[in-house]
């Protein structure tokens, strides 16, 4: 399938699954831990240990899921059958997590999180691989993942806004409405992507192998470059996420409501700018567009440092807008680039490793976010910042918070920029790979 064959309607159906996955990801890491510890008898130690163990197991299982997906044969489609199958444990996990009993035991918590994250991993990996497989065209892949980014941002906005609007209605609280919202999105998007969209067939058999094949993906320089960029972009975003509220309230003297307002603007701009980044990547090639995105991300973090304390209008109009614009590029472009890497892998090994590559990418993404919590909090502790004191921390501690939020994130983004210098898998090189693969496919036919 080429760029000319992909209609906007089909892209909208193919990429719809990104919305519930984004909603669930945000809810599991922000709202759910607070609800469990405040209202259902779960201790902080139990919650921390359960989430840590499940996420580590989640990272470990990804390569085996990716390998199985790449070797799947199904009339429904190589990846569609996994999206459908993953929706079942995901739905059960959402019910268990968002409608728990009054007192949640530790075994219940482990089972609920394991079920939810297993379904999440299956759906996320298979959906990314499906998106990557929809076109062979270098520029069109940017368009596909622009739609993926739109739905990802819609999912985040829905999780932030809709449950708050419905809170208390029909006797249901915010967490329960969040669960209902996610279940509705899972159901409708799965039906749209699996049964209503028109997806291209897989063109090569999948590769055998588990963890060894997973690590063997690092053999290609293009794979190493994309993974290095993804790791440090994940670190940059993660450190900003875990320190952002503290910086906004302690250093800039905004309220939590102000922070929420700028996030809404941030994600709205991100959603609107997705087509622009697809156009930019088609004109200047994806790796150069990612370099531009890394620069924009660095500048947006530095602009946050220049916000006048308490000036909400400046916060909403300048750093929130600029930050949302840069967020889109560093989220969608590495995934679009990895679709090109999958072609290079297939030419080298003669087998399809698309899902396995995305398993590696999601593992790197999860690692970056996990490390960001430790790096961010350890750095704040070293600077003497005490969260409970807020704006009453010492000037040195508040300066340290600003350094972590603005400085650490900027350095990480610029390391990602450097990873793209002399990136080998250019548009021209990809055209050569596609020509060789077409000859190979023609010979087999």
From TrEMBL:
One of its GO terms (molecular function) is symporter activity. InterPro entries: MFS_2, MFS_trans_sf. GO terms for cellular component: plasma membrane. Signal peptide: none annotated. GO terms for biological process: carbohydrate transport. Belongs to the sodium:galactoside symporter (TC 2.A.2) family. PANTHER family: MAJOR FACILITATOR SUPERFAMILY (MFS) PROFILE DOMAIN-CONTAINING PROTEIN, MAJOR FACILITATOR SUPERFAMILY DOMAIN-CONTAINING PROTEIN. This is MFS transporter.
């Amino acid at each position: 399938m080429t760029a000319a064959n992909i209609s906007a309607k089909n892209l909208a159906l193919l990429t719809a699954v990104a919305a519930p996955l984004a909603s669930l990801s945000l809810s599991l890491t922000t709202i759910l831990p607070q609800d469990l510890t405040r209202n259902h008898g779960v201790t902080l130690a139990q919650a921390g240990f359960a989430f840590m163990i499940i996420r580590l197991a989640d990272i470990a299982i990804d390569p085996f899921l990716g390998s199985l997906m790449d070797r799947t044969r199904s009339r429904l489609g190589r990846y569609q059958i996994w999206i459908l199958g993953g929706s079942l444990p995901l739905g059960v996990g959402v019910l268990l997590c968002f409608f728990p009993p009054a007192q949640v035991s530790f075994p219940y918590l482990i089972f609920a999180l394991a079920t939810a994250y297993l379904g999440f991993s299956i759906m996320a990996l298979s959906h990314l691989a499906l998106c990557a497989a929809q076109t062979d065209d270098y520029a069109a892949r940017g368009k596909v993942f622009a739609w993926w980014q739109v739905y990802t941002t819609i999912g985040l906005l829905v999780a932030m806004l809709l449950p708050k609007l419905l809170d208390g209605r029909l006797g249901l609280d915010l967490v329960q409405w969040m669960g209902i919202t996610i279940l509705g999105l899972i159901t409708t998007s799965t039906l749209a992507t699996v049964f209503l969209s028109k997806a291209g067939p897989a063109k090569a058999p999948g590769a055998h192998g588990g963890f060894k094949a997973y690590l063997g993906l690092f053999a290609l320089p293009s794979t190493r470059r994309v993974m290095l960029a993804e790791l440090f972009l994940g670190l940059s975003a993660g450190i900003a996420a875990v320190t952002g509220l503290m910086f906004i309230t302690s250093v800039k003297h905004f309220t939590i409501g102000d922070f929420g307002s700028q996030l809404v603007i941030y994600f709205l701009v991100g959603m609107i700018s997705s087509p622009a980044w697809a156009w930019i990547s088609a004109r200047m090639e994806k790796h150069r567009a990612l370099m531009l995105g890394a620069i924009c991300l660095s500048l947006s973090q530095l602009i946050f440092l220049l916000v006048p304390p308490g000036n909400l209008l400046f916060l909403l109009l300048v750093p929130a807008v600029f930050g949302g614009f840069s967020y889109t590029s560093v989220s969608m472009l590495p995934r679009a680039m990895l679709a090109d890497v999958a072609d290079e892998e297939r030419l080298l090994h003669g087998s399809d490793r698309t899902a396995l590559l995305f398993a590696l990418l999601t593992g790197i993404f999860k690692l970056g976010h996990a490390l960001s919590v430790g790096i961010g909090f350890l750095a704040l502790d070293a600077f003497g910042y005490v969260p409970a004191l807020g704006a009453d921390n010492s000037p040195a501690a508040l300066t340290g918070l600003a350094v972590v939020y603005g400085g650490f994130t900027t350095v990480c983004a610029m390391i990602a920029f450097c990873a793209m210098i002399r990136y080998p898998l250019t548009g021209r090189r990809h055209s050569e790979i596609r020509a060789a693969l077409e000859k190979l496919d023609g010979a087999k036919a």
